[in-house]
Amino acid sequence: MIRSLYKFDWVLFSALVLLLGLSLAVLYPISYSGGNEIPDQSHFLRQTIFAVIGLAVFFVFSFFDYRSLKNYSTVLYISGFLLLLLVLLFGKVVRGTTGWLGISGVHLQPVEPFKIIAAILLAKYFSLHSRSIGDYKHILISLAPVVVSIFLVIEQPDFGSAFVIFFLWLSILVMSGVSKKHLFVLFSILLIIALLGWNFFLKGYQKERVTTLFSPSSDPLGAGYNVLQSTVAVGSGGFWGKGLGHGSQSQLNFLPEKHTDFIFAVVAEELGFGGAAFVIILIVVVLSRLVKIALNSRDNFGKLLVGGAASVIFVHALINIGMNIGVMPVTGIPLPFLSYGGSSLITLMAAAGIAESVCRVNRK
Q1: pLDDT at 208 (0 to 100)
Q2: Which end of the chain has less Cβ packing within 10 Å, N or C?
Q3: What value, to the nearest 5°, has the Cα angle with vertex 143 and ends 197 and 287?
Q4: Cβ atoms of residues 91 and 99 within 8 Å
Q5: Virtual CA dihedral for 56, 62, 63, 68, nearest 10 degrees?
Q6: Domain residue ranges in the chain
Q7: Cα(161)–Cα(154) distance, rounded to whole angstroms?
Q8: d(CA 324, CA 331)
Q9: How far is it, in rounded angstroms, from Cα 341 to Cα 54?
Q10: Per residue in 353-364, pLDDT tens?
């Protein structure tokens, strides 16, 4: 085991620990917001537990041979699919989304682990058919389980996570070496589907989120409220910020969902441009190390699996930071390793552990 530790990517691990520490540092003063005489520290305490569990899961997967995941890909997909189905039947509704299963006070958001399960399934499929990837049928066959799962996620409705799953499939498809001709045809079809979806499938409030992106001031107390308050928080932080626990937007509860969706705005307000830049740098470090591990992988499965995990983290960070600064629609996508929530944090720590496993095996 000691020898295995020498084969770790310690830069990746250090960046993850710093992100977890920063998450707890930001969440702690939020517990005292609103002038409560008795602070509600439930978010901080639970996130501390999630962080400890996440680190344990990270090390478990680090010492687990990632190649064994091939053998369980089908079972994992079926299990994840059933959980997505169960959440529609028995799930808990939070902010209009039926996305949580509650068991004895513990809540699981099935779509979060399903993202990594989908990466395992797709990595196995494309690695097995790497020599015949030019055949159209592989695009259609790999898309089938993705479309079915996306349909269940949209029914919650959770369009943000549905987009993440689709982006994951598209990323692994590109990494597998599909031809440019196939990609052009695929993007043309997707453009047509997007236009049809906007006109016939999206509901009024969903269209409102997108249109409010371009003009949040048109409905400052309604659909544009979250975006306006978030941009005010980000802009008011200056270079060095107001200090932890001294952000007016977050501490006086003007900023909605400050523990989850808009935690980046809290960082920007309280730690300023420097703190926000530090978060982005840490996420870039995590992504760069994952890309390096993927490129150095000796087998296609490891390469596609780690590349898929990197794509999930990338699109999460892009959407979350984008909606915090007012350039992306508000979708409820958490900021990786920072936002409050156990399902996302533990899943991403598992993904990072799998990447460490690929790194460790390749360094043998």
Answers
A1: 66
A2: N
A3: 95
A4: yes
A5: 120
A6: 2-362
A7: 8
A8: 11
A9: 11
A10: 999 999 998 876
